[in-house]
Amino acid sequence: MSKFVILLGGTVHVSDRLRQLVSGARVLAADGGIAHADILGLAPELWLGDFDSTSPELEAKYAHVPRVVFPAAKDMTDGELALNEAYRLGASEVILCGAFGGSRADHTLLHLTMATAHAAEGRKLVLSSGSEEAHPLVAGVYDFDFADGTLFSIVAFTPLQGLSIEGARWPLKNMELFFGSSLTVSNAVCGNLHVSLHSGKAILIAAPQIA
After folding, report:
1. Which pLDDT value is given to residue 41?
2. What pTM was computed for the model?
3. pLDDT exceeds cutoff 90 at 3
4. What digits encode the pLDDT tens for the residues 56-96?
5. I need a surface site. Which of 20, 81, 112, 171 has the fewest CB within 10 A?
6. Does residue 210 carry a pLDDT above 60?
7. What is the SS3 assignment for the chain?
8. For strand 26-30 and strand 160-168, is the pairing parallel, antiparallel, or unpaired?
9. Across the strands, what pairs with 154?
10. Which Gene3D superfamilies has this protein been placed in (predicted)?
11. pLDDT value at position 49?
């Protein structure tokens, strides 16, 4: 198993859970996401991007980190370039850290959909800001370690078939859920959260820091 953390340019709130999540991982930084390295005690082994969101202060502070520089006019985001590099280096699990917030809602949405697309290919990914955490859902069975009271939502990216939720305030059994439905928004953990899905693609977004 080779766990990688990719530092992205969104928001990061340091928590014990986030520290545990990134512990022991190899670290790649995507452009300005390297700003999170210090507060998490991480040492990136590679810094990728077009460096259009990197300040002179960060340039100087992390001048020792090897870089791969891309032109600004490219057909991938810095985050996707870093994710592809992690898989090229043999990643079996990836944590997208700083995947939410920031000034670009389009990048946040891309991180959620990109992670789900990779999960559909059998890859394991988690997205986290420290205050929010997201887990792609494709056909399969999932168990989560969230504490009682943790708020969570499941957002469908496609029609879902056979969605079941156990260990929640509002459980579901073998439900069909259409794209755009709000039925599975704002639930709460009550016991051991267990989710299963027969077919479709979705993402579970939780707020573990307020449990």
Report:
1. 94
2. 0.91
3. yes
4. 888 888 889 999 877 766 777 888 999 999 999 999 999 99
5. 20
6. no
7. CCEEEEECCCCCCCCHHHHHHHCCCEEEEEHHHHHHHHHHCCCCCEEEECCCCCCHHHHHHCCCCCEEECCCCCCCCHHHHHHHHHHHCCCCEEEEECCCCCCCHHHHHHHHHHHHHHHCCCCEEEEECCCCEEEEECCEEEECCCCCCCEEEEEECCCEEEEEEEEECCCEEEEEECCCCCCCCCEEEEEEEEEEECECCEEEEEEHHHC
8. unpaired
9. 204
10. Thiamin pyrophosphokinase, catalytic domain
11. 85
The fold adopted by the segment(s) 3-131 is Rossmann fold (3.40.50)
* CATH ID of 137-210, from 3.40.50.10540, 2.60.40.2550, 2.60.120.320, 3.40.718.10: 2.60.120.320
pLDDT tens figures, 159-207: 999 999 999 999 999 999 999 899 999 999 999 999 999 999 999 999 9
User: Is the Cβ–Cβ distance between 39 and 14 less than 8 Å?
Assistant: yes
Instruction: Please report, as a single letter, which amino acid is at residue 7.
Output: L
